[in-house]
Amino acid sequence: MGNTFERTYWANDVADLLGISTSALRKWSLRLEAEGYRFIRDEHDRRAYREADLVALRKMKEFLSAKMSLENAAKAVCAMYLTRADAEPGTGIVPADKERSDERYFSLEKRFDEFLQKQEAFHQALLERIEERDKRLLQAMEAVLETRKMLAAAQEEQAKRKWWQFWK
Q1: 161: DSSP letter
Q2: Could you report the per-residue pLDDT of 68-99, keeping only the tens digit for each?
Q3: Of 134, 114, 136, whose CA–CA distance to 126 is shortest?
Q4: Which of 27, 28, 45, 49 has its CA 20 to 30 A from that of 60?
Q5: Distance CA 41, CA 21 (A)
Q6: Whole-angstrom Cα distance, residue 123 to residue 130?
């Protein structure tokens, strides 16, 4: 028995809570619905968002912040939340075949972990390249400094000579 007076939020409120635009929220909602997620709707067919939907949308934002594509983020969110046993029929989250959803979830989780590992390897390689570039830059600066010292010494030596000894 669910609470018949469960709090719902409208798109503007949810967008503000998530710190995104209402157009982004609509895009996310459409993508989630394409994957089988259902939001409750009012008599004018407007989406009403429940607390459970906010949890799913926050997870969606987390995935997108980690540079996951919108499609993969929606699939991952649905894989995580479509198996909820406490979902009410006809509203919110649609129950799915548990084994299939678990398999999809672990597949997406594995892909996400692989993505994070690749991202970490890229980050490490980038740091190594920056360090190598900094070493070469320091060597070039030291060479310029040494050249300037040699030029200054030569100019000082030239200044010590008498004007009639210019051929030396």
Answers
A1: S
A2: 999 999 999 988 877 543 444 444 444 444 45
A3: 134
A4: 45
A5: 20
A6: 11
